[in-house]
């Protein structure tokens, strides 16, 4: 248990906190964008807000990589996040189609999406630690 607590106090814990803040910025900004934009465009704009917040927090707060090449970090950050979106989509759709749907689990899409969103946390952390902010 102590090992888990120590891990959450370090960079991984900061990663989870930064990711939570970025997710809140993404979700909350969608409502603001919806005042002026159609739903789909509001989601896209909100996703961009979340990515910017995540990048700034990861770069300065989680990995302390502000003195390194900004352009390379942006490209790597975007690539890793695109892979995370693919992971989320594949897992979410796969669970609905082949597991939760056939088992008639209530709220199958919501449950599958939650698992899909949580899955890339570890792979994203590893990618950003080993590639983006190295």
Report on the structure:
The chain is mainly α. It is 82% helix and 0% strand. The chain starts with a helix and ends with a helix.
Q: What structural class should be given to the helix and strand makeup?
A: mainly alpha
Helix content: over 70%
Assembly state here? single chain
**In angstroms, what separates the terminal alpha carbons?**
29 Å
Mean of all residue-level pLDDT scores: 89
Low-confidence stretches: none
Count of strand segments: 0
Strand percentage, roughly?
under 5%
Shape: globular
- Rounded Rg: 16 Å
Biggest β-sheet description: none
Element order: H for helix, E for strand: HHHHHH
Helix count? 6
Core attributes:
82% helix, 6 helices, mainly alpha, 134 residues, single chain, globular
Q: What order do the helices and strands come in, and which of them pair?
A:
Elements: H1 2-9, H2 11-33, H3 39-62, H4 70-100, H5 108-118, H6 120-132
Helix pairs in contact: 2-3, 4-5, 4-6
Summed up, what is this model?
The chain is mainly alpha-helical.
